[in-house]
Specification:
Length: 759
């Protein structure tokens, strides 16, 4: 696509342009914002823009031989939160906003890009050099979204040590023009990154300095790049000490000109492309997972009562139209939406919302609007709106309807900076010939809502261009994180991976999910603490894909197993004191996935703050008194198995416990009454001797499905055969979360349910 590159003069924006070119994009314009004359200096305090060295940027048009568009920064930092939404003024002002609001500096970028687009309407993308700055990335993405542009951020979430070495190896001549960190001095100004690489590495080891300067430790100016037709030259330089800070210095450069690079043609990409490293699709960990599957195929072969490859072909291998695996229900059947409210957690579940039966022949956009009308009415009855929604699970009768559905869906959630996480799958057996079925989870405590919504293309993980986030969490009371589904897309191109082996698809999609989980940080999280999973679900479209998933998960656990490390050094929050979560994994076969993908991984997590809070509660207890009373204390600050595949009365159980909460998942191969489900919950927790009072009213007892074949395969549950009679694709699949508090702390434990699918 045609691209405008945001340039500050620094190494990041210049290096990202190289990757844009290598990915087949054409940079046709440059854009830059600079301090107004009233500042009187190269350096301007800005949360958003690098301004030091801005006087050199006007020469970049000569260096690259493409037009440059510049405007002064007229706004200030108004919206200081990580998430960004422009403050509306005038006729657009919100009713609560009774006075005109000052302009945020982000809107200067919006106005600049609008100017660029008037001259270059062919531009479809924006190059930005964000590495770790969520603040910067979110604002650029907001502007791009409003202008219909794709954000290209190929440096996002890169390992800084690797990235720094790649910048140096590429031939990019980047020199320090500002220092603002312990260990760096004014003597370092003007030196190249190559010259300073040993010093930066030493300071990183000694004091944690960010190697690429992501903590503001230094800023650079690029004098040459493989994309430059002419190199930049500064005629004079003057060291300036920042008046407001200690040990902060910058170079005030002037008298810039450019010089020829005889015989050099940057358009001859073959002459320099080998110097620019492109990250491998699978990093070292997941490459090893794939190798484990290949080399230890016998070990990771699904084991248990039934192997996928030996299932009755009549049940699993026919095309869906001829196979009773995908049951076609009575078209007159109707499911009533179900609303479950947990006031203690402030969580609301609304399940199985469909349009009226008579709408089955309506266009899908009309059907979707009707479904949302019903959801909004059900939310309003609880005093909520769509902005309170954390997670949506969408069932489409035909994935061919996705584009039309998504347009309408986006009209309801597109304005949110962190829209709900979403899973969208195809189920050809929806009741009364429904085309859309929707389940949502909402929180009453909207102010505690947090999310990760990366819309930029990168090498990191697939962008969520659509109106959904990669991960969202609600109140701190439960610490639950809802993860969007991840399919095996190549992140840089957003195309489905072209590989014949389903194992490669499975490993890549799991890498995407784990990268999201690692990058996700709730607002209050301690940096460096990744969330851990409470339950995973993998959707597949064939037995072969299910077989691949069943191999992938144990291989991943084997590769990443590292018990016994010091707790403070542990990044994976599911590890504490050498214990790791025994995470329930469900594999679900259905008729279709987005983009025709064979596999989609999704799941639920618990953020590190919740685990640390549980640990703190536990440490407050008097263990000696507990032991003196003869009670066996339950260490609440690490995951450990609670029960694994225990079976009672046709029910399969999976569960794991962390802190004062226990996650329990179960499926039923029989239809149960409400009373039987209540008894099941009681039995479920009695199995492990948990005799605390149980608030049954706090747990949804919900729905069941008939005629489901459940096969236990290598620690997973794989769903095949016989579709449900009430329109969903699974039978009684839930991740339940029940809080078990010691009676000395409270007299009434409470429970709640996290839906995987809905009814």
């Amino acid at each position: 696509m045609k691209v405008v590159a945001l340039v500050s003069g620094g190494k990041d924006s210049a290096f990202n342009m190289l990757h844009c070119t290598l990915q087949g994009h054409e940079i046709v314009a440059l854009a830059n914002l600079f301090p107004p004359k009233s500042v009187g200096s190269d350096e301007m305090d800005s949360f958003m823009y690098q301004t030091v060295g801005h006087s050199a940027v006007e020469r970049y048009s000569e260096c690259l031989d493409i037009p440059l568009y510049r405007q002064p920064i007229t706004g200030t930092t108004v919206v200081t939160s990580l998430e960004y939404r422009p403050i509306l003024v005038g006729d657009e002002a919100d009713v609560a906003n009774t006075t005109p609001a000052p302009t945020d500096e982000t809107e200067d970028l919006y106005n600049l890009l609008k100017t660029v687009l008037r001259s270059h309407p062919e531009i479809k993308g924006v190059s930005v050099g964000a590495i770790l700055s969520r603040y910067q990335r979110v604002r650029v993405e907001n502007v791009c979204s409003r202008l219909g542009l794709t954000c290209l951020a190929f440096l996002w979430e890169r390992v800084q040590a690797e990235l720094l070495d790649e910048i140096i190896a590429s031939g990019t001549d980047a020199r320090l023009i500002k220092v603002a960190a312990y260990g760096l001095s004014k003597e370092d100004l003007g030196k190249s990154l190559e010259q300073l690489r040993p010093k930066l590495a030493r300071l990183n080891a000694e004091v944690g300095l960010h190697l690429c300067g992501e903590g503001g430790e230094y800023e650079t100016l690029v004098f040459d790049s493989p994309l430059f037709k002419r190199a930049l030259v500064a005629g004079s330089a003057k060291v300036i000490e920042h008046s407001a800070s200690d040990n902060v210095y910058f170079l005030e450069l002037s008298d810039f000109h450019t010089k020829e690079k005889p015989g050099y043609d940057p358009l001859n990409i073959d002459s320099w492309k080998d110097k620019v490293a492109i990250p491998k699709l699978l990093d070292a960990t997941y490459d090893e997972v794939l190798n484990q599957i290949k080399t230890d195929d016998d070990y990771y072969k699904p084991r248990g009562d039934i192997s996928l490859n030996t299932l009755d072909p009549k049940e699993t291998h026919k095309v869906p139209a001829d196979d009773d695996l995908f049951y076609q229900p009575d078209k007159t059947m109707h499911i009533k939406p179900r609303v479950v409210v947990n006031d203690k957690l402030g969580t609301v579940w609304i399940s199985n919302v469909t349009a009226p039966p008579m709408a089955s022949d309506y266009p899908v956009d009309h059907v979707t609007a009707l479904v949302f009308d019903k959801v909004r009415a059900l939310l309003a009855a609880q005093g909520l709106t769509l902005k309170h929604v954390l997670f949506t699970h969408v069932l489409l009768k035909n994935m061919a309807d996705f584009d039309e559905f998504n347009k309408v869906y986006g009209s309801f959630f597109g304005a949110e900076s962190n829209p709900p996480a979403r899973v969208c799958v195809e189920n050809g057996a929806l009741v009364h010939n429904s085309r859309v079925q929707l389940t949502v989870v909402a929180t009453k405590d909207w102010n505690k809502r947090s999310g990760l919504h990366v819309q930029s293309r990168s090498y990191w993980a697939p962008a969520n261009i659509g109106p959904y986030s990669q991960a969202v969490s609600g109140s701190a009371a439960d610490g639950i994180i809802y993860f969007a589904g991840q399919i095996p897309l190549v992140p840089a191109s957003m195309e489905l991976l072209d590989a014949p082996a389903p194992e490669v698809h499975s490993v890549l999609a799991l890498q995407h999910l784990n990268r999201v989980a690692t990058a996700y940080q709730p607002v209050s999280s301690v940096p460096g603490t990744a969330p851990c999973y409470a339950g995973l679900i993998a959707y597949v479209t064939s037995p072969e894909a299910g077989d691949a998933v069943a191999k992938t998960w144990p291989a991943y656990l084997a590769v990443t197993s590292w018990a016994g490390l010091d707790e403070d050094a542990i990044r994976d929050a599911s590890y504490y004191h050498g214990h790791r979560a025994d995470v329930p994994l469900f594999i679900v076969q259905l008729t279709g996935l987005p983009k025709g993908a064979p596999i989609e991984w999704s799941g639920y997590g618990v953020d590190g703050d919740a685990l640390r809070a549980a640990k703190a509660k536990f440490e407050q207890r008097d263990l000696e008194e507990e032991e003196a009373d003869g009670a066996e204390p339950i260490a609440p600050y690490f995951f450990k198995p609670m029960y694994i595949n225990g079976k009672s009365g046709g029910i399969e159980f999976r569960g794991c416990r962390f802190g004062v909460q226990a996650f329990a998942s179960f499926v039923s191969d029989q239809e149960l009454t409400e009373e039987e489900l209540q008894a099941l919950y009681t039995e479920l927790f009695a199995l492990k001797g948990i005799d605390d009072e149980f608030d049954a009213a706090g747990v949804d007892t919900g729905y069941v499905f008939k005629k489901l074949k459940v096969s236990l395969i290598s620690g997973t549950l794989f769903y095949t055969a016989k579709a449900p009679t009430n329109g969903l694709l699974l039978n009684e699949v839930r991740v339940g979360c029940v809080t078990m508090l010691d009676r000395k702390m409270t007299n009434k434990p409470f429970g709640y349910l996290v839906r995987l699918i809905g009814e």
